[in-house]
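Appendix B. Chain record.
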Amino acid sequence: MRYFNAFGMYFGLRRFLKLACVTALIFVLGACTTQKRRGDLSMMGKLWHNTTAHYNGYFNADELMTFSFLTLEEQHQDNYNQLLPMYEYIATDNQQAVASDLDEAIKKVSVVVNLHRESNWTDDCYLLVGKAQFLKKDYESAEETLRYMTEEFSPAKMAKLEKKLEKSKKGKNSKSSSGKKVSGKDKEDNKEVLSGRAAEKARKKYNRDLKKKRKQDKKRSNKKGGKKKSAPKRTPKAEDEKPLTAEAETPAQEPESAPATEAEPAAPTTIRLSDSSTPIVDPDPPNYFMKHRPAYQEGVLWLAKTLI
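Structure tokens predicted for this chain:
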């Protein structure tokens, strides 16, 4: 009996492992599709693309770049009779010592961009390519790569893409829901139109009544003029009453009060690259699991180095 129980447990465990492997394979294959848009990726797909892009090709390429920087800095010898360079890896003349490593790093991140373009490490890959081309002293290619990176992955453009994705998601949700809902802006526009029509009707009615009253006053004055030659007295109401116009309905603008004198700003204690106090990029972005610092600002600095 013990033999049969052990035999059954063995085959039951084996069947369970097969089922678990098949389920995991289905999830992985669903996440491996590289032709989907970023908005169409599931949370599992985003996690897989970000993790694979970071800890596979990009990590190895970044290690090669770090080794190349150290190699170039070790080859440089300071000459204290001349002005010392700020960046020792730029002052080194023997760039061929790390050319093969730089080419390998470019190849690795190129594969990452092709397979995992929808990951959040694509801009880092372009930055690494630009840095590698800069170390090889191929300044024109480095400038072209970094300029493309700063234009394509700027915070303003990324914010627009996020808004488009949110609008597309809202549009899909509104299409799936039955019935058409009127937005708050449309309701306000309808109220303004109705109030304008009501005011127009009231103004026309007032003008008609005023014309009738003037005609009646004129007839009365003519009758009195036949009996007496004295000029008819004008009633003060007829002088004051005037037909309403659209401009008369608008309330008089209140005189603007003098702006309060603002206190003079204190002298700045820190230096910022921009006058705005709000950060350009969210320091704690919630849209992906594996967070890293933005590559845009570093790309702008390296682009400036290529222009010197």
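Further analysis of this model is presented in Appendix C.
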